[in-house]
Amino acid sequence: MRATLFTALIGLAFSLICIPPLVQASDKNRFALELEAGGVWFSRNDVQVPGDTGTRFDMLDLTGNGPDFFSRLYGSWDINPHHGVRIGIAPLKVSGTGNLTQPTLFAGTTFDPGQTTGTYQFSTYTITYRYTLSSSPKSAWRIGITGLVRDAEIQLEQNGKKASDSNIGFVPLLHLDGRYRFAQNWNFVFDFDGLASSQGRALDLALKVIYDVDKHWQVGGGYRTLEGGADNDEVYNFAWLHYGFLDLAYRF
After folding, report:
1. HSE value, Cβ hemisphere, 13 Å, CA-based, for 216
2. Considering 158, 166, 172, 244, which has the largest number of Cβ atoms within 10 A of its Cβ?
3. pLDDT at site 198
4. Residues of the chain under the 50 pLDDT cut
C-alpha cells in the first residue's frame, strides 16, 4: 500500500514536469534543489488509539522532547514566469524509552504502567503547484495548492508486547510563499502550507534568512514549525514540532 501511494505520487510529479509550458521561460535558473537539515523538538504529542475508546497519553513521556536530527529535500521547477512546481520529501521518525503513568489501551493492547518503548513516525511527501501573483527585484509572492501524502505510524513495545497504528493518507493544503530582499544578496523567505477542518488540521510554516553566494548557490538558516493532527473514532493525535535548521540550495 505504501509503495503504491509513493509510486503514484512520483508518477504525478513526473507527468506534471513533462507537460510542455504554454509560455517558454528563460533557461536561467529555472530549477533548484534545496536541503534543510538540523534539529527538531516536540512541545506536544498527545496520542489516543482508538480515538473513541483508547487511553490518551503523552508520547513525549516515552520519546522525549528532542532534539532529534531531521532533513528535508525539495526540488522545484519554474515552468515559466507565472507557474511552478515543487516536490518535497520529509522523513521523520523518533523513538525512545520512558514510563507510562497508567494502564494504557492502545491499538487493542493494554500496556501496564512502567517502562515502555515508543516510536513515532510522520514522514511526508508533497507536490505543490504555485502561481506567481507579483514579482520584482525586491519581492515576490506566490500562492498555490499542495498535495501531501503522509506515512504515519505510532508503536508501543513493552515486555514482549507490541502494538502499532499506521496510516497513509492524502491531504490537500493551501500554499503561500513570499520572498523579500532586505539587503544586497540577503533574502527573507516566508513558506506556508496549511488547512484546517472540524476533524483535524495541518499547519507548516517556515521563516528563513537566505544569502546569495553567487548565481547558483544559496546558504542560510531558519525556523520551521509544524502543528496539527486528527480527531476521529480511529485516532486522536495532535503534535507540535519546532525545527531549527541550516539551508543549502543550488539553482540551475
Report:
1. 2
2. 158
3. 85
4. 1-10, 12-27
Q: Domain 2-251 in CATH: superfamily?
A: OMPT-like (2.40.128.90)
Kind plus residue range of the DSSP H or E element containing 191: strand 186-197
State the pTM of this model: 0.87
What DSSP state is assigned to residue 25? P
The answer for residues whose C-beta is within 8 angstroms of residue 140's C-beta and 6 or more apart is 132, 134, 178, 179
Give the H or E element holding residue 10: helix 2-17
Asked whether the beta carbons of 170 and 205 are under 8 A apart, the reply is no
pLDDT, residue 104, reads 97
Report the alpha-carbon distance of residue 6 to residue 167 in Å, rounded.
13
Residue in this structure with the C-alpha cell 515552468, named with its chain if needed: 79
State the chain's maximal CA–CA distance in angstroms: 63
